[in-house]
Each structure stands twice: as C-alpha cells, then as structure tokens.
Design goal:
The protein folds into 3 domains: 202 residues, FAD/NAD(P)-binding domain, CATH 3.50.50; 111 residues, 3-Layer(bba) Sandwich (FAD/NAD(P)-binding domain), CATH 3.50.50.60; 99 residues, Enolase-like, domain 1. It contains 13 helices and 21 strands. The strands form 5 sheets. Strands 1, 2, 3, 4, 5, 6 and 16 form a 7-stranded mixed beta sheet that branches. A 5-stranded antiparallel beta sheet has the order 17-18-21-20-19, with helices on both faces. It is globular, with a radius of gyration of 24 Å. The longest helix is centred in the N-terminal third of the chain and has 25 residues. The model has no long low-confidence stretch (mean pLDDT 96). It is of the alpha/beta class.
Length: 449
C-alpha cells in the first residue's frame, strides 16, 4: 500500500495537465486531476481552438467577394454573429466532453474543485477535503493581463470576446502581439471599425521584421487603424452605452468596445505555493529545471504557468516529458525549447520557425537571405493586390537553414512541414534539390532566390 492517496495529483486540466495525467495513468500511476472550471484549458475553452473557428468564419467575408471573379454569384449574403458564436461555443462544449472522456477512459479521477497545496505532499480541496500525493504537478496556465487605470474595468479581454452579444461597430484593441492582431483581423472582417493601440512602435516583436512590416501594410490596406507609442489614461462609459477612451496624449475616441490583449500572466494566486516553498520568478512564473521540476523535489510544473514558451503544443510536450520522466521508468526526458514553429492567424496569417534575420546576424555574423515576394494565383484572378512573402535565412558558412518566415494564405499549414526540415538541420541545397509542386504557393519554398 502506498503511503499517499495518489501517485500523482495534477492541478489544472488544460492541455499540459491532461496529457501528463493520462500518460502517467497509462504507466500505472494512480492519478487525480483537479479543475475548478472546465476540462480542456485555455486553448480548448477560450483560446486557440474557438479563435481559429472565428478566423475561419472571418475568411468568408473576403471569399464571398473574391468568388465573383471565379464565376459565382451569391445574392442576399448576410452575416449572423449569434449563429457563429453559438456554433463555436457548442463545439467548445463537445471538446470539453471529449477531454473529460479521455481522462476517464484512462482511469484518471477528475475532481471538479479548486485545489491548493497545503503542505508537503498535501493538497486541500475547496470542499475542505485533504488528500496526499507522491508527486504534484501544477498546470494551471495563465490569464490575460488587465492593466489598472481609471475606467479599465470597462474593457474586455480575449476571454469575453467569444461571448459578445453582437459584433461591435467600433472597437479599440490594445496590444501588438498575436492575440491583438488576430482579433483585429476577425472583427475587421466582420465589419467593425478596428483600431489597434500599442504602447511601443512595432507589432509582433518576436517575428521577422519583413513579415511585421508586410502585415502592417496589408492591415492598413484592409482598413485597420493603428496608433503606436500610445498609452491609455481613462475609459468612461457614455450615456448611450459607448465608451470614451482618453489617451495620455490628450486625444479622445468613442467606441463601442475596448479589448485588452497585452500579454498573459501565470495563474499562481491561491495555489499555496508558498506553503511548499516553491520558488517563483520575477514575473510570477514557477521556476523549473529542464525536466519541469521545481526547487521542491516532488513538485513539478508545465505549460504557461512556467512562462517558458506559451504555446499549447509546448505544454503538451512538457506534460508528456514529465510523465515519461517520472513514471516511464526510462531515462529522463527534457523538451527542446529551441526551433519551435509558431503562427499568427492574422489576415493573412504569419508562420515562422528558427531565427529571424536580425537574430541570425547577431549570432552567426554572416548570413544569406533568400526571398520570394509574390501575388498568389487566387489573388490575381480575384483582383486582390495582396502580396505574400517567403523568407529563408541561412548560415553563410555552411548553407544551413537557420529560419524560415512566411506571410501568406495557409502559411501555417505549409510551415509545419518546413519546420521539420529546419529542425533537422537541412541546407538550402536540400530545398533546391526538391522538385516543386506546381502550381502552388508552397513551391516557392524550393524556388527561393
């Protein structure tokens, strides 16, 4: 008989926690997972999955215009936000059930309560029940950061954007990262007058400058307004239910909705981490080693709460590696956080893997850049002037590909395969030796000059 109630107690049933729990259980561990809200976490419930569905819905706005040059005539088209919203939320319900079934089918006990670490190997549930576990895994994710200033309570975050009763006629979106740009594209296609307000002078700082500039150019052409180096002073609700936004510059704007997308912060409050002596970083993140272990031997953490790389597939890999390491019986497994591909589901989307041109020059000195700047075939026939850009960054010394960057329709779909090549250390010559698939946008990857 074990001296503990569970071999593993996971706090948080998001992507990382679910993967870790079910794999640990498959290895024979007795596992429980506590979740105070819904199984699935940010990505499934209020993040990348429902957002991607809104992105799909938004694409039809341009497709219905472009189809005319392809011989289609569509009369009486109209957009019903409520129908899309409710369909997306219904699918979220389906996914919540699917994730729940996955855990239960793997023998994981689901406890629908908030959990707090109350001592060494001890967890106290919201009901007052106390349980013990040999290992504790914290996988509670992160939440949108909401700045505090007069009237800031009138602003929404991305969480609430999925539940709006109507598409706002006008919206200010604060932030310059991927969430801000994605929702700007969504609301713009649905007919909102969108303004992005950013406190710095650039968008998407971690992406290659060429892609950032191209997205800005296209977004302006689509009608999105931008205000850089701008800070909020106050938000005031007007008599007609709108919001008067005042900036520190003295400028004022009246809009129907204000949304903040200025970063995410780890959900560490009320977890009892101090009771166990778990060390935190400067941003409140749980500090872990390469095997996701905290400074306390029996407590681990994965996903956004560690603030390493805030991406769902990374959390899943960390959860898998944790379970393999602690319960798999083999050698310890660490996740390689280098060369991680990523995407921004803007209009058009961005995808990237590896080093930007600036990063490559700083690290390697001499680099070679190959580019293709073109108008996709569909855009040509549709009469749309929007251009795509592919960029390959190579080490001048050995021709090895250091990074690939794209802004184009379906860029994320193409990047997944390209990322394998970059991760494998292939060279520009390997791409040159590969026969193109014609006609396609992807063929530009093997025809770069």
């Amino acid at each position: 008989m074990s001296e503990y109630d569970y071999d593993l107690f996971t706090i948080g049933a998001g992507s990382g926690g679910v993967r870790a729990s079910r794999v640990a259980s498959a290895y024979g561990a007795k596992v429980a997972v506590a979740e105070e809200y819904r199984v699935g976490g940010t990505c499934v419930i209020r993040g990348c999955v429902p957002k991607k569905m809104l992105v799909y819905g938004a694409h039809f706005a341009e497709d219905l215009e472009d189809c005319r040059n392809f011989g289609w005539e569509i009369e009486g088209k109209k957009f019903d936000w409520i129908k899309l919203r409710d369909a997306v939320l219904a699918d979220v319900d389906r996914l919540n059930g699917a994730y729940t079934d996955t855990l239960e089918n793997h023998g994981v006990e689901i406890i629908n309560e908030r959990a707090e670490i109350s001592g060494p190997h001890e967890i106290t549930l919201a009901s007052g029940r106390k349980v013990t576990a040999k290992y504790i895994l914290v996988a509670v994710g992160a939440r949108p950061f909401m700045p505090q200033f007069p009237g800031s309570e009138h602003a929404i975050s991305s969480n609430e954007a999925f539940h709006l009763d109507k598409v706002p006629e006008s919206i200010i979106i604060a932030g310059g990262g991927y969430i801000a740009n994605e929702f700007a594209g969504i609301f713009n296609e649905f007919g909102s007058k969108v303004t992005i307000v950013n406190r710095s002078d650039q968008l998407l700082r971690s992406y290659d400058e060429s892609l950032r500039d191209r997205l800005l150019q296209i977004s302006i052409m689509k009608g999105i307004d931008f205000k850089f180096n701008t800070h909020f002073e106050s938000i005031e609700k007007t008599e007609d239910g709108q919001y008067k936004v005042r900036f520190t510059s003295g400028e004022e704007r009246v809009v129907e909705c204000v949304m903040f997308a200025v970063g995410r912060v780890p959900n560490i409050e009320g977890l009892g981490l101090e009771n166990a002596g778990v060390e935190l970083g400067e941003r409140g993140e749980i500090k872990v080693d390469r095997f996701s272990k905290t400074n306390v031997d029996h407590i681990y953490a994965v996903g956004d709460v560690t603030d390493r790389v805030q991406l769902t597939p990374v959390a899943i890999r960390e959860g898998q590696a944790f379970a393999d390491t602690v319960f798999g019986g083999g050698d310890p497994v660490a996740v390689d956080h280098s060369c991680i591909p990523s995407a921004v589901f803007s209009h058009p989307p961005i995808a990237a893997v590896g080093l930007t041109e600036g990063e490559a020059r700083n690290q390697c000195g001499s680099v070679k850049i190959y580019q293709s700047d073109f108008r996709p075939m569909k855009n040509v026939l549709a009469g749309r002037n929007e251009r795509s850009l592919f960029k390959m960054v190579c080490d001048a010394a050995d021709d090895r590909i250091l990074g690939i960057h794209m802004i184009a329709p379906e860029a994320p779909e193409m990047m997944q395969a390209a990322a394998v090549a970059v991760k494998a250390g292939l060279t520009k010559a390997d791409f040159d030796a590969t026969t193109a698939i014609h006609p396609s946008m992807a063929e530009e990857l093997v025809l770069l000059k």
